[in-house]
Every structure is written in structure tokens, then in C-alpha cells.
Amino acid sequence: MATSKLQALWNHPAGPKTIHFWAPTFKWGISIANFADFSKPPEKVSYPQQIAVTATGIIWSRYSTVITPKNWNLFSVNIVMAGTGIYQLSRKIKNDYFNEEQAAVAKE
Predict the structure, then answer these.
(1) Does the pLDDT value for residue 45 go beyond 90?
(2) For residue 106, is pLDDT > 80?
(3) pTM for this model (two decimals)
(4) Cα 25–Cα 27–Cα 28 angle in degrees, nearest 5
(5) Pairs from 55-59 (Cβ < 8 Å, separation ≥ 24)
(6) Which PANTHER family does this entry report, sorted A to Z (predicted)?
């Protein structure tokens, strides 16, 4: 029985013999790296990098529900990418713009 399930996975249209399997697998690495960057100070977070991660996540999460066969691994990794990118951008924006306003008010 396990052999038939393994063979079904191997021969699936989005199985390990296709790029549809490996592309999201490598994108999980980017998402995990973005999780690891949560401990970085916001000053070291890059706007262009996080905008790219966020945009990629939003665009491809939509596209992954349109393609046939539906690739739920691609969908889920892109939701995570968009979420981590939005979180990192919010940290960076808060640090760059709102902390300066609070510091200016405190000086007065």
C-alpha cells in the first residue's frame, strides 16, 4: 500500500519530477530566512527586499489558485511570504517614521 501511495505521489502532475514541486520547496527557504530576520533590528531590514518578498507572495498566491493542477504548497508558501514581508515592512516603517515623530515630540 505504501508503494502505491509513493508511486502516486511520484507520478502526480505536481509531483517531485516537476518544477511545480521544487519551486515552492525552495521558496520555503526564503520564508524561513525571513522568519529568522524577525530578530534583526529594523534598521537592518531592507525595503527593496521586503517589497519583493511581499509582492511575490501576493501575486503568486493568487496565481497558484488559477493554475491546473492547483498547487497548495505553492499557495501556502506564498501566503507565508506575503505575511512575513508585510510584518517586516511594518516593523521598518514603524521604526523609520513613527519613532522619529515620537522622539521629536519627546524633545519638545
Answers:
(1) yes
(2) no
(3) 0.76
(4) 70
(5) 55/85, 56/81, 56/82, 56/85, 57/81, 57/82, 57/83, 57/84, 57/85, 58/82
(6) UPF0041 BRAIN PROTEIN 44-RELATED
